[in-house]
Amino acid sequence: MLAILVSLALLIILTFRKINIVVVGIAAAAVMALLSGQPVVTAVTDTYMTGAAQFVKDNFLLFFFSVLFGKVMEETGAAASIAKFLAELLGEKFAILGVIFSGAVLVYGGVTTLVVVFSLYPIALSLFKKANLPRYLLPGAIAGGCFTFACANFPGTPNLVNVIPTTYLGTNTMAAPLVGVITGIAVMLMVCVYFLWEASRARARGDCFVEDEATTQSLAKAASMARLPNPIIAILPIVLILILLNVFKQHVVVAMLGGILLCVVLFFKNVHGVLDMFSYSAENSAIAIINTAVVVGFGSVVQASQGFQSLLDFATSLENVPPLLAFGLMTTILAGACGSGSGGLGIALSAMADKYLSLGLAPEILHRVGSAASVGLDSLPHNGAVITLLTICGQSHKESYKYIFFPTVVFTLAGMFISIALGTVLYPI
Questions:
Q1: pTM: predicted TM-score of the whole model, two decimal places
Q2: Closest by CA position to 291, among listed 56, 10, 29, 27
Q3: Which of 13, 46, 334, 398 is deepest in the core (most CB within 10 A)?
Q4: What span, in angstroms and rounded, lies between the C-alpha atoms of 416 and 373?
């Protein structure tokens, strides 16, 4: 148990200090092996590498086509068109809700978070200026749409944390739909009410939009988006992906490929540098999956230790703790330790899925609770997506992190508990 705590602490500390995650993952795995009595060399070269390699094998094509779809949607202007339409639909009075829903729709449709942030930021900035809202709320509003209910609660999305469980549990992306819909609506309402309240408080304090040189450039970019594709046509690739995935039950890679091809056909004139897009997608998907795989590899070393097995046996033997609650808590703790929802979920499912299935829990509810739990603590300050979001928005942790914390940590954890409560009632053992 001590070995697990020390190695997890090392993982968090080194990640927070911005040391390369590959180095961090290997170092944490070595420390874990050393303290738990495992042969260090074998643990790193065999256990660690096997876990990391298996994750790459199972998910590389998903990562690649997800990034490629996002890039095609970005380059053709389709993502910006959808974001601009939805952001402006609610008008200046509800500008902050427009930002939230724009990010949510794009992320739910399979556009990668990074692409959404880049596409949405100049549009959101322009909307915030018109509404005279302070910029410190902007990262939180984007995160509220991208990092919460859309990617992890509502069923049917090709987002990673909704797809990874299918590999371990044999489920599909529509697993436990009623639980997902109710939880998604609950989290969405919490996010929206919170930001309407914060916007009202900001206006009451007299806080307003302040422009600097960087924001001036971004606003100019937003103003140049006059000839974007029709938003109704722009959303068709997303609709096709969701239909192929959830109606025709096609593999997520097939669905993503269908969306890519339709986007290219619809906006052929806007497609430039096809080889560059493929190169970009290959490079970025490789970086993303390696960053996740090294954390999963660390989880394999943890899983191989006697301490973890004892911890798992203890968690599943607690008479007063429902197994679904124990599973959710352990998943969100692992996601927080890794600073990665997909990484923590991969570790949790590879280590615990068989154990909890053997207790009689339905794979569908394990899928839904696991997805919800994966986005609970993963958005702590050391999370890479959080750091990237703040950088793009030109804000610091001190200025804006608390507005990220409430929707992405507090409300998503509430969503996890809601899904657990519903699952306990609807999927009894």
A1: 0.88
A2: 56
A3: 334
A4: 5
